[in-house]
Design a protein that fits this description.
Length: 417
Amino acid sequence: MGRRAERELQAIRRDLERTPGRRRARPRANYRRRRLALATAAAVVLLAAGLMGSAIAGSGAKRGAQDSATATAPARVTTHTNGSQTPPSRQLKPAAAKPILTVSSLSLTFEEPSTPEIATGRNALGQPVRTLPTLVLYPSEHRRGAATPARTTPLQRYPLIVFSQGFDVAPTVYGALLHAWARAGYVVAAPTYPDTDATAPDTISPGRLYEADIVHHPADLRFVIASLLSASSNRHSRLYRLIDPREIALIGHSDGGEVTLAAAANSCCELPHIAAAVILSGAELASFGGSYFTQGSPPLLVAQGTADTINLPACSVQIYDAAPQPKYYLNIPNAQHEPPYVDPGPMRTGVIRATVAFLNAYLKRRTAALTALAHGGPLPADETLSSGPTAPALTNTTVTGTTTLTTPVTNTVCPGA
């Protein structure tokens, strides 16, 4: 503020500090002149500041022609007859760029304390552990025009999805599903359970496949979730403040579906605070012990192909019919055991669309897409999504090179494979 304005302000303060009688004795015109002079001086200061800011902005990074012309124009300050001022137009400031979500990946290895009998290795201290390599895909936020995603605190936390793979199938085989969920705004973690992937490193017996180890996988799943939440609380982790611990979903295919179902709805190993679960061609497995659905379950989506000869449709029907509401059944016509989840094409596209709609409804409270699909909305491979008390009756399905199946199937043995 200039010296003249300071003098005027001091004079006004002195005038206000006078006794009421002496203040009334002073001419009011003189006071109005001082107030107008002060307002004029302030306007000059604001105008000078606007010109200076415009000059600085003009010498910064390159902008488009329209933005450059706007940035170099002097800010307009209008003084009204009562001495008030209109601030510079907000339109002169460029709008903040919206963040763009891309998918980044991270490979982590968690070492779960274990007994020697089921350990897959030892840690640096020589203690037995179960080694759990985990692929993590997560949304990266960056501003339009930025060369790389910013490594700052994320603008928001994202729900967590933990995906469990099928037996003898690497998590990367499901890459399209994992990326689609991450692009939809989820942190996606895919652990490799011991003895389920012949290509995964195993320090005790390289290349070993041992399906019976599945009874230990729900505990492995619990440890992976705890480790991820710990990483999200660690400011030195790339996952720092990225995961919303209140919104966790479990998804699994085949054997991984059995692990997911056990962790979501079996008294043997039910995890608390699971917001939703998706079972892709899975089954109830007696080997876990416990009982299913006696303590309820989170919202459930069961997906099943009608031509699946490995996990029979009756196994998914059994899960669905026993589950409490809310629940959804995704029927995939002419689909076998793995193609809807790993092969490109309309079936996988339909699975992505249905699972994202389901997850958005129960983890993000966005229900419109799920409601539309459940009321007959189109899916690309003629899949149907229903939400009644029991699974819909399905017709005979014949696929070249496979067995003709009828649902419900009289063979109700569901080993899950």
